[in-house]
Amino acid sequence: MAAAPVWSVDPRTGKQREQVAAQATPQAVDAAVRAAHDARTALADRTARIAFLRAAARTLDEAVAAVVETADAETALGTARLTGELARTTYQLRAFADLVEEGGYLDIRIDHADPALTPPRPELRRYKVPLGVVAVYAASNFPLAFSVPGGDTASALAAGCPVVVKAHPDHPATSELCGALLRRAAVEAGLPEDVVTVVHGFDAGLELIRHPLVTAAGFTGSIRGGRALFDAAAARPVPIPFHGELGSLNPVVVTAAAAAERAEEIGAGLAGAMTLGVGQFCVKPGLVLVPEGPDGDRVAEALAKSVAGTAPGVLLDLRMRDNFLAGVRERVALPGVTAPVAPGAGADAPAESGADADVGARAGGGSGELTVGAGFLSVPARHLTEPEGPYGLLLEECFGPVTVLARYAGQDEAAAVLGRLPGNLSATLQLSDAEAAGAAGPAAELIAQAASLAGRVLVNGWPTGVAVAPAQHHGGPYPAATSHSTSVGGTAIERWLRPVAYQSVPDGLLPAELREGNPLGLPRRVDGSPANA
Fold it and tell me: How far apart are the C-alpha atoms of 291 and 295, rounded to whole Å?
């Protein structure tokens, strides 16, 4: 039986564009993993690895026109957004090349023997080595930065781990193009092209996570899909680490003092954050705690004004569009929930069958495209403190351009709502100038509570936009992530490494990184102190 075709689809119309590949059979997945496994020795060469990462960045930059055109045709994310995303992607590749060149990621530690200690200490030398073949599951909403050439792939390659990427079905042509560019860059750097391979298909994803030569996996996607793969990784005869980013509500707390001081600014800023990328960012603010009263009303009015002026947009695929429309209808139907600006289908776009009129048309501009309009819901915060009942739905992510304003009566009520939330990627506090300048008091308590439920805490900013930086953390307690690692920033490389200690091994038998003379000039800690020679 012939393998099923993989089609590139235009999300603006829902029509097939072209067949770009075939779904990988179990035999094809096995061949890809084994070829990647065989490429490990070549990829262990740090010099070649650095050259490869830099060549990959350059090759992608040189192909910017083709990459952006292909990605836009499959995602409708727009030329400006995708051009910026590609720049982020190639910056990330170069940053990992610099990280490998500097060498600190190896975390080399040497403790010389000391018989005078009690108990006596033997000679110990420790560093980190790559795990082996890594499976990467590409994201839907970032066809470059979190997909084939994205952070999981870049950090795994930087660690010395060959990668097999399971492409996302929303952008298979982009995945094929980027995979070919990475393989070309590998050959240019003197490495086997199979250090990176792309496979397609739902069943291929399951075969990949179960393959005995796959040693770890990275995933960005839904809670349902990520949890299924996480469970499969744990159920293997030899379980493997599964670093998944699954879902996040990204709560925001607007204090009463902040609302009084700059309500209009906060409302407009929130509108920009929740509609960015048609609400398809993993760090979109999905729940916003706003005080009751006139100042909170001003925040809501500013949000309504900005959101009402936002043009409808196209979601990544029809399934996501249907889920968005259904999710909004289900939430609006809850007692006490209102829609000051009703999200829904664009005016000239068909709603899914059974769509309610109240959650229906927003101006679509006559395009006829499969658009959705942004909006927001409002609910008394006291409903969200109820341990039972239907309002738990409002504490779940709704992917797309919608957020929920929960109007709270006092900080205790706001804190009670936060106490009901699961883990998140981010938590944001909008504080007044006086609160931000203080070292103690209610604002400090809010920050402490935010830190307990999120991987990144922001003050007077918005979580959309995750900087690629050494101090970045993109993760959080479950279900934001399935591990305590970050998928963005230099320390993302740590997911694909494991430590090995050598005890009383003669110098000539040690890896070059651990030898006494430090022949590679790598940073290391010797007897507890930093040393570079």
Answer: 7
Burial class (CB in 10 A: 0-12, 13-18, 19+), 352: middle
Peptide bond into 119 cis (omega under 30): yes
Identify whether 161 is a catalytic site residue. no
Report how far residue 113's alpha carbon sits from residue 103's, in angstroms, rounded to the nearest whole number: 25
pLDDT of the residue at 355: 34
How many CB atoms are closer than 10 A to CB 151? 30
Catalytic residue chosen out of the listed positions 85, 178, 207, 282: 282
> Which tokens go with 480?
């934001």
pLDDT at 345: 80
Question: pLDDT (tens digit, 9 = 90+) per residue, 206-264?
Answer: 999 999 999 999 999 999 999 999 999 999 999 999 999 999 999 999 999 999 999 99
| Tokens linked to 174 | 């982009």
How many other C-beta atoms are found inside a 10 Å radius of the C-beta of residue 236?
A: 13
- What is d(CA 149, CA 200) in angstroms, rounded to the nearest whole number? 15
CA–CA gap between residue 35 and residue 328 (Å, rounded): 46
Q: Which residues contact 288 (CB under 8 A, 6 or more apart)?
A: 251, 252, 253, 254, 270, 403, 404, 405, 406
Among candidate residues 245, 369, 397, 435, the one labeled active-site is 245
Helix axes 294-308, 256-275, angle to 10 degrees: 20
Active site residue 398: no
In the prediction, which pLDDT does 62 show?
Answer: 98
Six token digits for residue 511 = 């890896």
Low-confidence ranges of the chain (pLDDT < 50): 353-366
